[in-house]
Fold:
Amino acid sequence: MLVVDDEELVRWSLAARLRDDGHDIVEAGTAAEALDRAEHGVDLVLLDYKLPDADGLSVLKKLRDIDPDTLVIMLTAHRSIETVVEAMKAGAFDYATKPFELDDVAVRVSRALETTRLRRELRTLRESLSRPFGLASIIGESDAMQRVKTLVRKVASSPGSTVLLTGESGTGKDLVAKVIHYLSSRAARPFLNITCSALPENLLESELFGHERGAFTDARQQKRGLLEQADEGSVFLDEIGEMTPALQAKLLRVLEEKTFRRVGGSGDIRVDVRVIAATNRDLEEHVRAGKFREDLYYRLNVLRVELPPLRARQDDVALLAQHFVESFSREFKRQVKGISQETEAALRAYGWPGNVRELRNLVERAVLLCEDEMLEPADFDSLHTARYKSSGARNGFELPPEGVNLEDVEKGLVIQALERSGGNQTRAATLLGLHRDQIRYRIEKFGLK
Ligand SMILES: Nc1ncnc2c1ncn2[C@@H]1O[C@H](COP(=O)(O)OP(=O)(O)OP(=O)(O)O)[C@@H](O)[C@H]1O
Ligand SMILES: [Mg+2]
Structure:
């Protein structure tokens, strides 16, 4: 701590008292001395307003240039409002008027130091939290992904706005949601997420909004919902398209008025959360079909990040594959270094219905099973199936002149295979030349029960 005053007696009494309180004190009698001492790093400066070689205000500005984190308490000779206002405007943390009570100064000092401590803690916390979810964790240099990353950076720096993430399953919506949160000024506050389709309406409602004691039979305790727990942070609402109309209305109110009520509650609760919503469905279609509120859709759609499917950014396939090879190799302590050229070509040509998630899973298995340094096409079972299918594609199915809806055809075949196998997924997969993961993926995609 630096005590700056040209009156030796003032300096001496302040320093003595603060040393008694256990602080480490350096003293300065002039502005020049003060700036020189500050170069060595100080947490807090007690700064006299009138110094022989400069006025305190200009010293204050220079101190803050040296280290914006240094807090300054101004010492003023008379209680002049203008001086105080000027000092506070220039960035002083606090002020004390002479002649001062030492106890009063001591309280101001400990308050300032507490502030410094909290700021530092916040910064370290923020840095450690954001490290695994920096922009660099989004792999991909294709034009489409560069646009996504630019947009993500912009979205992160406007921490008040709602974000809508769209894209097929496995394109990275979860990942991008985290990156947005941890890059934003909300990073040190919670990031909480919930999948809207995973819970029945009433449970989802009380998870999100909380409930009062006795709101329903099981509500023995009052409970704070996700929105309250995430105050000043972000809430990620996954599969927003599956939210029921009643909850959509309640969510709209949160977005518009920043208030809501707990289930069974009568008072409005105010929160400051950023909502990041995601869906792999066609929300516009949901709106047209009357399943999704149009006003909510427009409210969510202000900032939209669309994640392109992997098949539309073939250039990223090799980058992602290399990234996953390295990370799984490290994790499983294997010696796998990369993918061969032939593998790369095969991976690029593949359609990636499960997008990055599918690629990640395939690489994971390949790294586990591979005996060599480079992954060969043989290490990827699904690619065989894909090739086998393309060579046999003309057998049996003729594309009618008016064309087909491939998804419908696929869905129809999956249903038939499941019926024929009596619901046995492994056998149904064999009938379609697929792996069990692949048929599972389709069962989920088509919402088959
Ligand atoms: N660009 C990327 N760079 C690195 N990893 C990625 C990228 N995109 C996705 N991943 C990884 O792929 C996996 C699937 O991504 P994620 O869970 O974010 O997809 P999603 O879009 O949320 O899918 P779903 O709609 O099924 O929830 C995760 O392990 C994620 O970390
Ligand atoms: Mg997801």
